[in-house]
Design a protein that fits this description.
Largest sheet: 6 strands, mixed
Strand content: 25-35%
Structural class: alpha+beta
CATH superfamily of the largest domain: tt1808, chain A
Shape: globular
CATH architecture of the largest domain: Alpha-Beta Complex
Length: 244
Amino acid sequence: MKVNSTELQNNFGKYLMLAAKEDIIITRNGMEIAKLLAIDPVSERGNKNDAVREKAEEYLFSGKKASYAEFLELSRDSDERYEYIDGEIYLLASPKTAHQVALTELFVIFYNWFQGKKCTPMVAPYDINLKRHGDHISVVQPDIMVICDLEEKLDESDYYQGVPDLVVEIISEGTRSKDLIKKLDLYMSCDVREYWIVNPLNREVTVYLFEESNISKSITFRKSEIIQSYIFEGLSAALDRIFK
């Protein structure tokens, strides 16, 4: 994962945690200048201590490698919810109450604000196909997405084949590393313009603005602050309403 030096300085604690799972490449003015990576501690007896690992109950197939064709075969006509990210299949478990409360409140805000406007907010489950390059396809189901070219990008089977302008993911203990690392990098690389990470665990929301496949700006909203969108002027949400 790549992050610019300003973003690292503003959110050092978060990236220190993420470095335990994936190397963090630090950039300045678009150039790679350093790397933040984890060190495996060794006990006095010479045995490596077990690294702290997140629970993965929300991603039950975590680590299962498969081809895109195998993913389509598995997910076709299934009542289960699956995502396919960088060649791995993830079975999504049922979300918890805090997740659903935040999702409902945010979607109501989005739905009302976008009435009469060009863009359309959508809610999961709704497949979004993203291509990093060539035939490298990932399939995700963001909690909320704002689509501004819906009619132009519907295929003959009534599936959307474009890229949302704004994506919202509501994280949990089990999905945190995927939403903070894999999905952030995926959305940033595939021309999503804005990414909201909603964290009911610590009652925070971080908003990222992506430009030229990099993090251009980011801000974390806490306590009783009002979330503000970068790309949709006037779109806002009160944290007190989302986290009840």
